[in-house]
Fold this protein.
Amino acid sequence: MIARTTLCVLLLTWLVSAADAQQRGDTGGGLRGQPRPANKRNPTPRDAEAAPPAGMRLPKTAPRSITFTPEREAAALAFVATHRPELPPVLEDLKARQPSEYQRAICDFFWVSETLAAMRQADPQRHDLALRTWRLETLTHLLTSQLAGRPADAERLRTELAQAVQQLVDVQIETSAYDLKRQEAQLRRAQERHQRLADRRNDLVRERLGALEQAIEQTTAP
C-alpha cells in the first residue's frame, strides 16, 4: 500500500542507531543525528510512466521515469508534512546522511501523492480509504522505529502501536468491504449485459446474417 521500501530504509536507520546507542550506553534515541544504516534497500521500481488507474493500490516504489527534481521534492515534502508530520525530521536526517536514498524516498512519496490525487478525481471514497491506510501504515513503521530507540517510552509506544495496528486492520476491512461492493455492482452489470444478449440471441443472429448477405450482394453486384 505505502512505499514500504522507503519506510524500511527509515526503519533501518532507527534500528542501527538504537544498537549503536546501546553499545555506547546511551538510551535516548531520537530523530536527528543518527548513524548511517548498515544496509541499503533494493527497490524494484515499476516500469509504468503514467499515473496508475484510480482503482489500483498505492505503489511500493516510484517507476524509473520518476526522477528527483526540486519541484517533486517540494510536492512530496508538502504531502508528507500534511499527512504524516512526524516524517519530515526523519527525511531531513536521511537527506544529510544518505542523499541518494533520500532522493529515492522523495520520488516514492511523490508517486504516492500522485496516485492518491488520481484516486481523488476518479473515486473519492477509495481515495479516503487509501489515504487512511497510508497514514496508519506509516505510523506503525514510525512507532516501531521509536520503540527501538526509546526504551524509556516503551509502554506508551506499545500502546500507541497496538491502537494504530487495530485502526489499520479496521480500515483494511472497510476497504475490502468497499471493493467487494464495487465488484458486486460490476458483476450485476455483467449479468445484465449477458441476459440482454441471451434474450436477443435470435435477433442478433438475424441482424448479423443480414449484414453479411448484404455485403456479399454488394461485392458480387455487376
In short: Confidence is low (pLDDT under 50) at residues 1-5, 12-55. Residues 4-185 form one domain. Helices lie at 4-24, 70-83, 87-97, 99-122, 124-149, 154-199, 201-220. The chain has one domain: 4-185.
